[in-house]
Design brief:
alpha/beta, Rossmann fold, 7-stranded parallel β-sheet, 9 strands, binds nicotinamide-adenine-dinucleotide
Length: 269
């Protein structure tokens, strides 16, 4: 039995990257999906490649009218709505002191308002379906602080708080709300910000992180293929008793740090 058999899932930011990966995995696990994004051509191509199990709708997550239209399309096309993956987001890197109000507002609107409108917009359809599962894609930057990403980090922490309150408020309708906090995703999200980095040092940073999980002595980097199973687990009934919490998909990055000199410290740490 495929674990998402019969379920209908709306995914935001699904024209590429993690969202596209979730759409492909959810269909492979038996779901029908509404692929949504502001990138129409790419989104249409992703949906077309998934056949009858997918349909594309343009959805700018900051526009409540778009949300109404997307939810109505999910219900009229597939008959119900069981899942929402709030995945769309923007990144900005820079110093707090030089970040413009325009950039701050853009991140708050897409990364936070977009998530809030998503939950607001799907609640009635999920109640109608007898319950549902909402997965909000946060980040390791929503679990810890880091220089250069303060505004992005603020948005990713904020939606974790929203998720908990939403889980409490919507639990009575059988609607679960959880977050996934990955340490990676589509490199294209980070690439436009390479100019703000000291690339040589950044390569060292990537080599050093995460320090916990190893396979045959190698540090394990997280890929989109590590993130999508966690999201599909939370969409499925296998997680029926899990709500208001987070799953970090970060190979142990946010577990803590390796302390030199204490037992368990290895020479190559
Ligand atoms: N890339 C990383 O390293 C990384 C790390 C941790 C967490 N994340 C998170 O993973 C999620 C997916 O990001 P990704 O890595 O696939 O990056 P991505 O840039 O490939 O995907 C983001 C998608 O969101 C869409 N989008 C942007 N603004 C939108 C709007 N207003 N309305 C609807 N769609 C919009 C984009 O068109 C794009 O398809 C995001 O929530 C991101 O914060 C990414």
């Amino acid at each position: 039995m495929l674990r998402l058999q019969g379920k209908v899932v709306l995914i935001t930011g699904a024209a590429q990257g993690t969202g596209e990966g979730v759409a492909r995995r959810a269909v492979a696990e038996g779901a029908r999906v509404l692929v949504t994004d502001v990138q129409e051509d790419k989104g249409n191509r992703v949906a077309a490649s998934l056949g009858d199990a997918a349909r594309f709708v343009t959805l700018d997550v900051t526009r409540e009218d778009d949300w109404r239209g997307a939810v109505a399309t999910a219900v009229s096309t597939f008959g119900r709505l069981d899942g929402l993956v709030n995945n769309a987001a923007l990144l900005a890197m820079g110093l707090i002191e030089t970040t413009t109000v325009d950039t701050i507002e853009r991140l708050l609107r897409v990364n936070q308002l977009g998530v809030i409108l998503g939950v607001k917009s799907v609640a009635a359809a999920m109640r109608e379906a007898g319950g549902g599962s909402i997965v909000i894609v946060s980040s390791v930057d929503g679990l810890m602080g880091m220089n250069g990403v303060a505004v992005y980090s603020c948005t990713k922490w904020g939606i974790r708080g929203f998720a908990r309150s939403a889980a409490i408020e919507l639990g009575r309708y059988g609607i679960r709300v959880n977050c996934v906090c990955p340490s990676a995703g589509n490199i294209d999200m980070v690439a436009p910000w390479f100019h703000t980095m000291n690339v040589a040092r950044h390569e060292r940073f990537l080599r050093d992180v995460p320090p916990i999980l190893r396979t045959q002595g190698q540090r394990a980097g997280v890929t989109i293929d590590d993130i999508t199973p966690a999201i599909c687990f939370l969409l499925s009934d296998e997680s029926a008793r899990i709500t208001g919490t987070d799953i970090a998909v970060d190979a142990g990055w946010t577990a803590g740090h390796v302390r030199p000199g204490l037992p368990g410290f290895l020479d190559d740490d």
